[in-house]
């Protein structure tokens, strides 16, 4: 009410409210103050009309400002304190104001205005309802009188046709409908009122007084020391609200309120913050488990509702409280097995308090509609979303990242809950969520996450402590998902498992799993998120091969993604700028939503360095080995070749700056046989420091560079020597003599180098034949004809459908073999699960038959 | 060398009775404590219907203890069961061995059954008695008897599961009674039925059946005279190679050994056998992380690393391993011979001048022996004309004239004619009306023209 002082600058309105308040205070025993002074009312109306739109927001403000304002007022003039009205009273006053406006409009037959005002009134009543206050008789009275006047108006209109204008007539009919609806809604009250208005009002008064027993007392005993009174007042004031509520929060009061909140949910004018506040209060007073579950369910969902737009993320405080509440919910459900939350239940009475002992409940379990898994999903999604939106280089990001611990804990608790209740479908989903939090993390992080789970009171069966290692834990989680029926989860679990193996440098296992799963064949039809995961997995596999020193494998694995030139986009680590097409905003939004949070990124620069270095090690000796231009066009790694050509064209090369520069200059050094320079250049690339075991990797690279340097050298300079001392080679490339011999022998054996070793002299003897032009051309044409024939065969193969169907050729056999191989590989897919159990379970095949037969015969 | 012993890995894939010879062999090699091996033997025998054998083993292990009474009990039971099963089976056998019946029986099983039922009142259950008796005989060690009964059963029965089981049983019986030809035949039919079978959830079942077959077939292949070539043929077929890679990489040892043993394949061998070494080396490299032993390491050192010293070292160890191996024991000398040959071949191909003494050392031979060996080698091998021994300097010199260019061109284009005509035939077979043929025809034409 003090707000009125502020808002309405003119003394007139303040006067009016003053007088009104005086009235109120004098009339303390019946605080409804129904017979408001007509004059004052008129003023009020005008004022209200002016501040029509603001009234709504004001009233919501009022509660916050009430306290302080009240104090102010007290200090200025203690007398004023008497006039403090509860929020409830204020609403009443507003309602009456609208009533007045309606009356006025009625007089001039302005049905449009009436209709508007009535809407307002209904909304106010609705709010009244939300805080579960009784319906004031004023409303009932208005309803009745309106009904009458509407009927009258309609009757009149019938007599005098076409008298009213169209909008008015329309409003009138609308009004009729609305009134009808409202009357029906409050039928009981209306009837009661019609029967005995006096009694109805008395009843209401009694109710309200009982609701707020405290306020009158201090108001009367105001005269006293201001300070002490002030405190007292405040204390009392807050209890008014609380007391007022708790009075109604008897068992079914809560449920009624809950229903009101739920009905308001999703409507246009619902104040979400307000709803959350109401629910929080409800939670405080909820007594039974049933009530708490219901309130928590509603509360968590309304927290998630808080943000209507998809783009922004949930405020972090809200998220945290939602997370806590989900925890609470799980705790309640877990400790009370008599309650169950299910997505599909039979219909039940929302307003009835239910207990497990009730015979109506099946097997003594109260089933409540709701879904914990969707909460967990949503929590996790919101967490990701917030990470996507926070600047990853700020401290805020790190702070937010710390919340992953609690989130992980919640997920684990949910998992434990589903394990106990044997709900397979949500269990699979929740395990997948858990897996996604740990599969890409190094051991130390997983340990930190798991330690919080260890500390929690509800634990899932699969834990780090029980499994021993992180790999064990991930294995257990994945195996569960493999067994579950959901193929999407199976695919994702498989990919995560492979990723994890790759992360732990277990290249062979990871590769076998990837090949056996046959995901390459079906991944194109998978959803985008899974495709991203697949890309990540493949890339990680490539890095793993690189770390293990398997250069060729690394190069081959990473080649695919680098030829697309859209590495960032494919890994969902950045939006690709397409040159010739512009993304629609929707596409862009979808793209943004897909982005991985920064801490999950695979460093693309490191990736590129690994790829280019392995390409260098594969490509440079190859380049050196071929001498005709014809063959030169065939490149193993196009991206590398392109960069190398570009570097070749440069007139002047400065000292290397970027990673690429380093690698290009190193490649040139390697081509020239300067392996030491090449090694130094490669090792000075800064990005290696991001790779685990960087020192070992550098050492490995140095070794490879030595070997490939030797090969390149031999290829490049062989034409210029007729013999070359092995010991010289060994000194030049500081490799042991044995290694040099081995490399040279290998090259001779594979017919890459036409030479042979002279053991007694310790030299390589080169046998080089210069081909004449004609000979060279003859060879080329033979190759080409062969290639063409092969193309033809392939084309025919495709036309015929199926391999090896039309001729018994050696090549056809090869194709067949491949077919068989893939088929068998498919069988291998089961291996991870099968072999161990199989070895035992299959027992002795023949003996098994024996064992089965014997007892039945003898016994 | 105990760490290279494969008995423990192989046994889970063998039948109880098949494992017995393995254990007997182990007790001969002294790789493990005799006591342990005996206990293992006893544990195995306990589960069979050979109470006498088990009791015998028991008294050997625990000489100071009384033989448990259960053996006597079991013996009693066995005798009874034997009697009963024999009676049942005899009834059927009597009918079948009747010459009239033997003549009346045809290829069609259903019809046979009907015939037997109509004329001799034989039911399926009675025929199953044959199976049970055969099985029982097998379980107390009468393998040839078991083989007979199971054979008869298979001829008559229509029950697929029992038939498969009988097949396995027959194979085991043949193996154990040493009838290698019969076993080989049995092995082939079994392999066919495994490869053609499509059960529900076949992938895994098939994998398991194949793994079993691989292990059982080792008995046959290393005892049958032509076994090694057949082994290469079977094991190198894609499905079995995959099975090896997937579930039993240790079989690679036998594969590698067989490849080395059949270094010079008999004429008419398939390309698969001829190129066996090359394929196996690839697999060995691929599976190195899973399985490694001196035999595979030898091949790897020789053909991947070209480290002759290391290869020689591995050869020495491989010889030992082979000597201790149940299957490969007899082939040890043969293996060594062939391995030497491989080493010297590789050596000669990469070298121009070879010190004879050095080479002999590489081959673990004395210089004199080495010289003899090398002369033989030169005589046998293709390089005959190009290699000369210079006794003055004690070296061999190998002259390898470069392959003339026209030769390579001829090689490259040799197959083209055949392949092109293959293409042509395929297109004409595709039918005149087929539109697709037209697409190929112009494409194929230039290939022909160029030739």
UniProtKB/TrEMBL annotation, chain A:
Check the record and name the Pfam families matching this protein.
eIF-3c_N, EIF3CL_C, PCI
Q: Which UniProt keywords apply?
A: Coiled coil, Cytoplasm, Initiation factor, Protein biosynthesis
Acidic residues bias: start-end ranges: 12-30, 58-78
- Basic and acidic residues compositional bias: what residue ranges? 808-833
Zinc in keyword set: no
Q: Name one GO cellular component term.
A: eukaryotic 48S preinitiation complex
- Can you say where in the cell this protein is located? Cytoplasm
Can you supply a Gene Ontology BP term from the record? Answer: formation of cytoplasmic translation initiation complex
Per UniProt, what is one GO molecular function of this protein?
Answer: translation initiation factor activity
Predominant place of localization: cytoplasm
Domain PCI residue range list = 598-771
Recorded hits in InterPro entries, A to Z, give: EIF3C, EIF3C_N_dom, EIF3CL_C, PCI_dom, WH_DNA-bd_sf
Q: Where is this region: Disordered?
A: 1-81, 800-859
Q: Which residues form a coiled coil?
A: 143-196
* Entry superkingdom: Eukaryota
Q: What does this protein do?
A: Component of the eukaryotic translation initiation factor 3 (eIF-3) complex, which is involved in protein synthesis of a specialized repertoire of mRNAs and, together with other initiation factors, stimulates binding of mRNA and methionyl-tRNAi to the 40S ribosome. The eIF-3 complex specifically targets and initiates translation of a subset of mRNAs involved in cell proliferation.
**Sequence similarity:** Belongs to the eIF-3 subunit C family.
Quaternary data: Component of the eukaryotic translation initiation factor 3 (eIF-3) complex.
What is the protein name given in its UniProt record? Eukaryotic translation initiation factor 3 subunit C
From TrEMBL, chain B:
* Keyword flag Cytoplasm: yes
**What is the residue range of the signal peptide feature?**
none
PROSITE patterns registered for this protein in UniProt: PCI (PS50250)
Q: What are the protein's UniProt keywords?
A: Cytoplasm, Initiation factor, Protein biosynthesis
Q: Where in the cell is it found?
A: Cytoplasm
Q: Does the keyword Protein biosynthesis apply?
A: yes
Tell me which residues make up the PCI domain: 220-403
Family annotation (Pfam families)? eIF3_N (PF09440), PCI (PF01399)
Highest taxon of the lineage: Eukaryota
Per the record, its GO cellular-component terms are: eukaryotic 43S preinitiation complex; eukaryotic 48S preinitiation complex; eukaryotic translation initiation factor 3 complex, eIF3e
In the record, biological process GO terms are:
formation of cytoplasmic translation initiation complex
The record ties this protein, via InterPro entries, to: eIF3e, eIF3e_N, PCI_dom, WH_DNA-bd_sf
Output one GO MF annotation. Answer: translation initiation factor activity
Q: What does this protein do?
A: Component of the eukaryotic translation initiation factor 3 (eIF-3) complex, which is involved in protein synthesis of a specialized repertoire of mRNAs and, together with other initiation factors, stimulates binding of mRNA and methionyl-tRNAi to the 40S ribosome. The eIF-3 complex specifically targets and initiates translation of a subset of mRNAs involved in cell proliferation.
The family line of this record is:
Belongs to the eIF-3 subunit E family.
Instruction: Indicate the quaternary assembly.
Output: Component of the eukaryotic translation initiation factor 3 (eIF-3) complex.
Name of the protein described by the UniProt record:
Eukaryotic translation initiation factor 3 subunit E
Q: Which organism is it from?
A: Mycena metata
Upper classification of the organism: Eukaryota, Fungi, Dikarya, Basidiomycota, Agaricomycotina
User: Quick one: which gene encodes this?
Assistant: INT6
């Amino acid at each position: 009410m003090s707000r009125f002082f502020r808002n309405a600058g003119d003394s007139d309105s303040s006067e009016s409210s003053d007088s009104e308040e005086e009235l109120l205070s004098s009339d303390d025993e019946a605080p409804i103050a129904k017979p408001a002074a007509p004059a004052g009312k008129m003023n009020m109306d005008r004022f209200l009309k002016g501040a029509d739109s603001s009234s709504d927001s004001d009233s919501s403000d009022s509660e916050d400002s009430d306290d302080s304002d009240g104090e102010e007022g007290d200090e200025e003039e203690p007398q004023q304190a008497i006039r403090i009205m509860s929020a409830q009273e204020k609403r009443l006053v507003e309602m009456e104001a609208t009533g007045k406006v309606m009356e006025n409009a009625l007089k001039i037959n302005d049905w449009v205005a009436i209709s508007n005002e009535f809407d307002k009134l209904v909304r106010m009543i609705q709010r009244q309802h939300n805080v579960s206050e009784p319906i004031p008789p004023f409303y009932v009275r208005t309803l009745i009188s309106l009904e009458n006047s509407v009927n009258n108006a309609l009757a009149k209109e019938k007599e005098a046709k076409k008298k009213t204008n169209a909008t008015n007539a329309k409003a009138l009919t609308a009004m009729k409908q609305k009134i009808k609806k409202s009357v029906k809604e409050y039928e009981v009250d209306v009837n009661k009122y019609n029967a005995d208005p006096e009694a109805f009002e008395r009843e209401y008064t009694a109710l309200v007084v009982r609701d707020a027993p405290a306020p009158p007392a201090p108001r009367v005993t105001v005269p006293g020391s201001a300070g002490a009174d002030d405190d007292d007042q405040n204390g009392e004031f807050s209890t008014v609200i609380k007391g007022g509520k708790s009075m109604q929060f008897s068992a079914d009061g809560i449920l009624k309120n809950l229903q009101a909140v739920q009905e308001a949910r999703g409507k246009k004018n619902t104040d979400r913050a307000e709803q959350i506040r109401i629910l929080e209060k409800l939670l405080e007073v909820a007594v039974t488990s049933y009530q708490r579950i219901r309130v928590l369910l509603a509360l968590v969902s309304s927290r998630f509702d808080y943000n209507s737009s998809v783009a922004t993320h949930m405020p972090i405080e809200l998220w945290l409280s939602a997370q806590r509440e989900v925890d609470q919910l799980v705790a309640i459900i877990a400790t009370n097995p008599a309650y169950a939350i299910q997505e599909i239940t039979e219909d039940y009475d929302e307003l009835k308090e239910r207990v497990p002992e009730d015979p109506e409940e099946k097997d003594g379990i109260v089933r409540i509609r709701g879904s914990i898994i969707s909460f967990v999903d949503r929590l996790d999604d919101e967490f990701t979303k917030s990470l996507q939106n926070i600047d990853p280089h700020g401290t805020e990001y790190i702070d937010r990242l710390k919340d992953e611990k609690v989130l992980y804990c919640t997920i684990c608790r949910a998992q434990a809950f589903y394990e106990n209740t044997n709900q397979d479908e949500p269990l699979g989903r929740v395990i997948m969520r858990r897996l996604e939090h740990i599969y890409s993390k190094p051991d130390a992080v997983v340990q930190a996450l798991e330690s919080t789970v260890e500390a929690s009171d509800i634990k899932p069966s699969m834990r780090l402590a029980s499994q021993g290692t992180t790999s064990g834990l991930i294995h257990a989680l994945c195996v569960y998902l493999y067994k579950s029926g959901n193929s999407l989860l199976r695919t994702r679990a498989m990919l995560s498992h492979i990723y994890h193996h790759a992360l732990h440098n277990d290249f062979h296992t990871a590769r076998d799993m990837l090949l056996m799963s046959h995901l390459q064949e079906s991944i194109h039809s998978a959803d985008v998120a899974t495709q991203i995961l697949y890309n990540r997995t493949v890339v990680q596999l490539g890095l793993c091969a690189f770390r293990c020193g398997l250069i060729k494998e690394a190069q081959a694995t990473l080649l695919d993604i680098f030829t697309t030139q859209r590495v960032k986009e494919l890994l969902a680590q950045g939006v690709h700028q397409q040159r010739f097409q512009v993304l629609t905003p929707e596409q862009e939004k979808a793209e943004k939503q897909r982005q991985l949070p920064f801490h999950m990124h695979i460093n693309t620069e490191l990736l590129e360095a690994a790829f280019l270095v392995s390409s260098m090690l594969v490509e440079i000796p190859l380049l050196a080995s071929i001498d005709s231009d014809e063959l030169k066009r065939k490149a193993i790694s196009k991206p590398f070749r392109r960069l190398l050509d570009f570097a070749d064209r440069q007139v002047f090369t400065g000292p290397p700056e970027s990673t690429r520069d380093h690698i290009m200059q190193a490649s040139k050094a390697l081509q020239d046989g300067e392996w030491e320079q090449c090694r130094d250049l490669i090792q000075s690339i800064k990005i290696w420091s991001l790779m685990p075991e960087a020192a070992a990797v550098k050492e490995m690279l140095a070794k490879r560079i030595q070997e490939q340097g030797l090969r390149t050298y031999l290829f490049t300079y062989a034409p210029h020597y007729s013999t070359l001392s092995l010991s010289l080679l060994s000194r030049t490339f500081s490799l042991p003599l044995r290694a040099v011999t081995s490399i040279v022998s290998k090259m001779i054996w594979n017919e890459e180098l036409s030479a042979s070793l002279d053991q007694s002299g310790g030299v390589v003897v080169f046998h080089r034949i210069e081909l004449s032009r004609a000979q060279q051309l003859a060879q080329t044409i033979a190759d080409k004809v062969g290639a063409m024939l092969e193309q033809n065969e392939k084309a025919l193969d495709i036309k015929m459908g199926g391999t090896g169907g039309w001729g018994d050729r050696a090549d056809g056999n090869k194709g067949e073999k491949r077919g068989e191989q893939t088929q068998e590989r498919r069988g291998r897919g089961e291996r991870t699960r099968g072999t161990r159990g199989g070895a035992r379970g299959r027992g002795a095949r023949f003996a098994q038959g024996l064992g089965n037969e014997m007892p039945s015969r003898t016994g | 060398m105990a760490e290279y012993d494969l008995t423990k890995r192989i046994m889970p894939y063998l039948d109880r009775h098949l494992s017995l010879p393995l254990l007997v062999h182990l007790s001969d090699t002294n790789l493990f404590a005799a006591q342990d091996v005996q206990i293992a033997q006893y544990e195995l025998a306990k589960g069979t219907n050979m109470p006498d054998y088990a009791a015998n083993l028991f008294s050997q292990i625990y000489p100071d203890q009384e033989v448990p009474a259960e053996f006597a009990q079991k013996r009693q039971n066995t005798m009874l069961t034997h009697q009963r099963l024999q009676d049942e089976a005899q009834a059927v056998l009597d009918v079948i061995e009747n010459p009239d019946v033997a003549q009346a029986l045809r290829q069609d099983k259903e019809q046979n059954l009907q015939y037997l039922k109509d004329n001799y009142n034989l039911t399926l259950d009675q025929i199953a008695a044959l199976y049970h008796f055969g099985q029982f005989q097998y379980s107390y060690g009468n393998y040839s008897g078991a083989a007979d009964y199971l054979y008869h059963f298979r001829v008559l029965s229509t029950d697929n599961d029992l038939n498969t089981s009988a097949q396995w049983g027959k194979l085991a019986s043949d193996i154990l009674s040493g009838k290698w030809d019969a076993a080989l035949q049995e092995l082939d039919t079994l392999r066919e039925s495994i490869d053609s079978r499509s059960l529900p959830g076949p992938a895994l079942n098939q994998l398991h059946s194949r793994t079993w077959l691989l292990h059982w077939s080792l008995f046959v292949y290393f005892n049958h005279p032509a076994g090694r070539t057949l082994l290469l043929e079977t094991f190198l077929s894609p499905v079995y190679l995959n099975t090896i890679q997937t579930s039993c990489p240790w079989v690679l040892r036998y594969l590698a050994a067989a490849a080395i043993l059949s270094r010079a394949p008999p004429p008419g061998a398939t390309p698969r056998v001829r190129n066996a070494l090359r394929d196996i080396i690839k697999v060995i490299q691929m599976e190195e992380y899973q399985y490694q032993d001196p035999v595979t390491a030898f091949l790897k050192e020789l053909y991947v690393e070209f480290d002759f010293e290391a290869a020689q070292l591995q050869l020495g160890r491989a010889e030992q391993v082979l000597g201790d191996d149940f299957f490969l024991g007899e082939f040890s000398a043969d293996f060594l011979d062939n391995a030497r040959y491989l080493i010297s071949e590789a050596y000669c191909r990469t070298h121009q001048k070879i010190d004879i003494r050095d080479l002999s050392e590489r081959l673990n031979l004395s210089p004199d022996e080495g010289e003899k060996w090398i002369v033989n080698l030169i005589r046998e091998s293709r390089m005959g004309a190009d290699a000369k021994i210079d006794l003055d300097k004690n070296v061999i010199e190998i002259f390898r004239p470069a392959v003339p260019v026209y030769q390579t061109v001829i090689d490259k284009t040799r197959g083209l004619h055949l392949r092109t005509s293959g293409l042509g035939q395929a297109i004409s077979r595709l039918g005149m009306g087929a539109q697709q043929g037209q697409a190929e025809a112009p494409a194929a034409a230039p290939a022909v023209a160029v030739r």
